[in-house]
Design brief:
Blueprint (H helix, E strand, L loop, with lengths): L4 E6 L5 H11 L2 E5 L4 H7 L14 H11 L4 H12 L19 H18 L4 E7 L1 H10 L4 E7 L2 H9 L3 E2 L7 E2 L6 H20 L5 E5 H6 L1 H12 L34 H4 L2 H28 L3
Parallel strand pairs: 1-3, 1-4, 2-3, 4-7
Antiparallel strand pairs: 5-6
Helix pairs in contact: 2-4, 3-5, 6-8, 7-8, 8-12
Length: 306
């Protein structure tokens, strides 16, 4: 199986930036970060991209927008962002994932198709790593794009995720470095999203029929070489060709700019700093789903993508 796009799905603060960085270092793949935010954080807010320059100063992204759209104005970016936001999928809804695909599918196609087509061309036909994470966004692009999409479902211990969402962390890529990452006021506000997004991510393989592999952050950090090999084999990722290929991520964890992603070390600060009541609440609520994900994860060493 050969793919054009490897979509990293799941819930935020689950290690997608770390995993994307490792895959770009090891395979002929280009990390785009959270492409879902290209219009907002890229064109409109002109934030830093993975190469360390502002979006407007990136020759790569300038070539992509010129190739796909003949350039994009601020007014166009506002409209394009509105269309992408319709596939965010944060509202709890009954029914299938495909049944939640937005009604403006024609508008969505008119934006997504030229964007990804231009990315494939400008990147030199490397596999694109899109860590947008929103499962509904992945389901929607799979409906409109004429290319092969694989899904890498990244998940993490829900207690660690809830703790991370409660912390105040500066976004270095924002204006003047004075912006902060989104936070959750209580563990409950992140619990339901952890459950919802991880449930939806599994549906990308089961319901949408996309090639699918799940990967736990803790397992990845404990055995990075083993998991990198598993991912490469499952999605038939080719060996790295250009050693000087810059990371073009348009959005993601601020760790992108801290220069320490090559050293894969598990972050377990939550074990020391998370209040006992919060650990107990999150654990009791999410443990059954977390254990199912771990069981599924372990089985893949013999089963591969499905």
């Amino acid at each position: 199986m050969t793919i054009d796009i490897l979509y990293i799905a799941g819930f935020g603060r689950s290690g997608s930036t770390l995993i994307e960085s490792a895959l770009q270092r090891n395979f002929d793949a280009l990390g785009l970060g959270e492409l879902f935010f290209i219009w907002d954080r890229g064109v409109l807010k002109d934030e830093l991209v993975g190469s360390g320059v502002r979006f407007s100063q990136s020759a790569f992204w300038r070539d992509v927008l010129d190739e796909g759209f003949g350039g994009v104005s601020k007014a166009q970016a506002v409209e394009y962002n509105r269309i992408f936001q319709s596939a965010r999928g944060e509202k709890l809804k009954r029914g299938s994932l495909k049944g939640q695909i937005p009604e403006n599918i024609a508008e969505f196609r008119d934006i997504a198709e030229p964007l990804y087509r231009a990315l494939l061309k400008v990147s030199g036909s490397r596999v694109l790593l899109d860590s947008s994470k929103y499962p509904l966004f992945a389901a929607t692009i799979s409906e409109v794009l004429d290319c092969k999409i694989g899904v890498l479902h990244a998940y993490r211990d829900p207690r660690a995720v809830a703790f991370s969402w409660s912390q105040k962390k500066r976004r270095a890529e924002g204006a003047g470095g004075q912006e902060f990452m989104s936070r959750s006021k209580t563990p409950l506000s992140s619990i339901w999203r952890w459950q919802w997004f991880n449930h939806q991510a599994r549906q990308l393989g089961r319901e949408c029929g996309l090639p699918y592999v799940s990967i736990g952050y803790e397992n990845f950090c404990a055995n990075p070489d083993q998991y990198i090999q598993l991912i490469g084999q499952s999605f038939n990722l080719g060996p790295k060709v250009l050693e000087d290929l810059e990371w073009q991520s348009v959005s993601g964890n601020p760790a992108r700019f801290e220069g320490n992603l090559e050293k894969i070390v598990i972050d377990e600060k939550w074990r020391r700093a998370m209040p006992g009541y919060a650990r107990a609440l999150v654990g009791a609520t999410c443990q059954p789903q977390y254990e199912r994900l771990q069981t599924q994860d372990a089985a893949q060493f013999t089963g591969g993508a499905r």
